[in-house]
Structure formats: C-alpha cells, structure tokens
Amino acid sequence: MTTTRIAREAGTSVGSLYRYFPDRDAIVSALALRFLDAFEDLMDEVVAAASRERWDDPAAVLLDAFVARWRAEPGYRALWLGRHLTPPLLDADRENNRILADGIRRILVAQGHADDGEDTARRCLVAVLCADAVLHEAFRIDPDGDPRLLEDATVLLRSYLATFAPTSAPHPDDPSAPLPTRTTR
Q: How far apart are CA 123 and CA 104, in angstroms?
C-alpha cells in the first residue's frame, strides 16, 4: 500500500492526499478509526434491537451481524489482516474490543441471559477476543469467511454464552428461558 496506489484508487493526485494526510500511516489510521467507529455503531444497532425483541440464538445473531460487516467492507479485511497496524491502532482495536464486549453484556442482560456485573463483563470480553481471533482467521482463509470456521465460531460463542448465569430480572417475554444451545443456524 503506497500513497501513489491510494491516490490512484481514490481518483486523486498524491499531492491532494498530502494536503489532508502527512503520510501513508495517517491514511491507514484514518481508515482504521473509521472502521472501528462503524463496528461500534453496528454494536449500538444490535443492542437496540436486543432491547426490543427476543432472540432464539443471540450468538448467531451477533456473529451474523459482524460477518456481514466483514463481507461488506473489503478494506477492513485488507487493513486488519495486513501489516499496516501501528501500536496506536492496535491500542484502538483493543479499546474497540472492550466496547464490543460491553455491547454483548448489554445484549445478554437485555435478553435475560446474564446478570449485570463484573463477572459478566469479563466473560463478554473473553467471548469477543475468541470470536475476533476466529473471524480474523476465517477471513484470512477466504474473502467471504471460511464457512466451517464461521460455523465453529458460532458454536464456540453459543457454548460459552450458555454458561452465563441467568439474570435475576429475566426478559419480560420469557422469564424462565435459558440461553438456547441450538446447533444449526
């Protein structure tokens, strides 16, 4: 990835790029932060949906939403799976994972599958870190995400989330429902 190639793909001159970005790393940082913001926005949308509706399989809903975003953003894959990440961008990715974990915590609480506490917050971070690693590998293997790894990621997340303690304030639609362990999507 060079500034010449970026300018060509953007349909502009290298000089125009340098008016807004001092170097290639600044361009990469801007793109990465844009992608991280988009994932945070997606999580906000999913959390809002979780508060309005009951899901039979929260793990599949979550992974399907994020897989769709990976598929829709080839630039994200190229950036995150390449060698372009600086230490500040890796820090931003870690913070993004914490934000996504908090979104999952809010979803599980809203769906009545977990208590809202430190233990749930930590376990949601573990779920995000595991799913993130498998998603990276799935999209490294196949630009659309290796189907077997994506299915395994769903099973992994579903199994892990099933171990969460049910909330003391269950979802009003189904007060006694445990987290489902459906094996197909």
A: 10
pTM score, two decimals? 0.74
Residues 35-83 have pLDDT tens digits of: 888 888 988 999 899 889 888 888 889 899 989 988 888 777 777 776 7
Domain span at 96: 24-161
- Report whether 177 contacts 170 (CB < 8 A): yes
Identify whether 30 is part of a domain.
Answer: yes
CATH number of the domain within which 60 lies? 1.10.357.10
Per the structure, how many domains does the chain have? 1
Which tokens in the block code for residue 104?
């999952």
* Contact yes or no for 80/136 (Cβ under 8 A): yes
Query: For residues 26 and 10, what is the distance between their CA atoms, to the nearest angstrom?
Result: 15
